[in-house]
Amino acid sequence: MSTDHILVHDEGGVRTVTMNRPDKRNALTAAMYSTMAEALEQADASLDVGAVVIQGSGGFFSGGNDVKDFLVNPPTGPDSAVFRFLRAILKCGAPIVAAVDGPAVGIGTTMLLHCDFVLVTPHTKLHLPFIDLGLVPEAASSLLLPKVLGHQRAAEMLMLGRPIEPERAAAAGLVNAVVPADRLVAESQALAMALAAKPRNALRQTKALMRANRDEVRAVMDKEGALFGELLRSPEAIAAFQAFLMKSAAKG
Length: 252
Prior knowledge:
alpha/beta; 6-stranded mixed sheet; 11 helices; 13% strand; 2-enoyl-CoA Hydratase, Chain A, domain 1; two-stranded parallel ribbon
């Protein structure tokens, strides 16, 4: 199942999914979404997986969507790779631990709302620049982020596009803890191993009870996805993406 850009490793009842494209800040392509979705779907289907860890590599969590790939392979409906991944992370019965170091942009942040535990480092920056790209939020973040942060602080992230710093994110309850970067892998694996050691059926049933609003979340996710796809073709979004690509090209 592993590819060059998505590594999947199973050990001790823990499935570790690593976004492994550090030269592109672990920006996600359609192929990467498909591999991650498959890894989560398999984890959901098997009690052999007691917990899942999602992490990045090279000092990055994820730069969000790979813009070039996104324009070539835009999400055209519910069967698109990105929406398959979002459904998989929403549905996964095994607890999910996110180990976040460095930038977490767009879906790099919104996927965290579907994880059960989130550990970040002092270098982490959670950033949601959807409006600046002429788009709306995704992954039901328009519903979930205000519930976690409150409307006003969520508006800072979703409307103004202001990043939230690690300590503030922890104080607000968006993440569990801020840990040193050199301890992130060890602490996230230890947490996942502790979860995997629990009675697995009871653990999954507990998660299901805690996520009892999943149908509501899925409905909002679908509504956001439809609007996202519509706005992706708008003049605002096209201009924003062209500007982004020109800026990236200028940086080399």
